[in-house]
Amino acid sequence: MASENNEPRSEEMPRKIALVTGITGQDGSYLTEFLLEKGYEVHGLIRRSSNFNTQRINHIYIDPHNADKALMKLHYADLSDASSLRRWIDVIKPDEVYNLAAQSHVAVSFEIPDYTADVVATGALRLLEAVRSHTVDSGRTVKYYQAGSSEMFGATPPPQAETTPFHPRSPYAASKVAAHWYTVNYREAYGLFACNGILFNHESPRRGENFVTRKITRALGRIKVGLQRKLFLGNLQASRDWGFAGDYVEAMWMMLQQEKADDYVVATEESHTVEEFLERYFRPSEVDNLKGDASKAKEVLGWKPKVGFEKLVKMMVDEDLALAKREKVLVDAGYMDAQQQP
């Protein structure tokens, strides 16, 4: 069809399609925002729950009946259910798959180790096999991203890079190591375009409140407005490499845009103690010092973090202070109690 100036109108390129597990989590929400801005159609797999847990993506959700504008769509599936994974891959036909889903709380993994291993390790294997079998049957190319973790390095001295040996110190970390090597195996054995992103700690105002950084900033806000009096502290000397989750999801995407699949450490290359961030609880096996070497990601991907440690902390504190003020209004009006905080 010709345009008004009689020049042929260029045909629009078809949208890329991404499938994201863990879309309702911190990383999933930032990745979805990023991909939508890039013009993708994004499909997320979510678990059935009696409680809504989509608060991190509600602001970008559009009713699917509005087909022209609803570029994010949600589907029920589970990493413990191989048939649902294969079915949705066949239906959605994604160009890229991002496996972000996990039981991701390190301390909790000591309480439910079987479940953690089934979802984090074997779940990744199920998804890899679903992608592989789909590519074989369809002849399509699907790129796969596996979310790794700095916890895989565990007791290995810093700085930790792609070639640093793993020494996991929790069921969660051991499960992530298994998922990492499953991904490498499918890349080498089947030629699957599969990348591991070994992401060091990345935080944001969307971080779950059972994670140490949100425990700190949430408590600071509540203490300031009088809803809480104490914050119980644990191992203050544990050191972490903390970055902003919004920066890190860009690195995930960059990995899948390369000509060759590979594995990358993503980190700020700065280490800070929990004392600097204020609070932490001991685990049965503690990891003392994690600091990443992201030189490969910088050189090959051209990635570097935009948000530094101080800006990240300020961002989280400001958000949680505003949340505490809203909570205080409801408490004062008698619509909720202060949940008997210490």
From TrEMBL:
Occurrences of domain NAD(P)-binding (ranges): 19-281
Cofactor(s) needed: NADP(+)
Recorded superkingdom: Eukaryota
InterPro entries: GDP_Man_deHydtase, NAD(P)-bd_dom, NAD(P)-bd_dom_sf
Keywords: Lyase
Enzyme category, top tier: lyase
EC number(s) stated in the UniProt entry for this protein: 4.2.1.47
Cross-referenced NCBIfam families: gmd
Family: Belongs to the NAD(P)-dependent epimerase/dehydratase family. GDP-mannose 4,6-dehydratase subfamily.
Protein name listed in UniProt: GDP-mannose 4,6-dehydratase
Phylogenetic placement of the source organism: Eukaryota, Viridiplantae, Streptophyta, Embryophyta, Tracheophyta
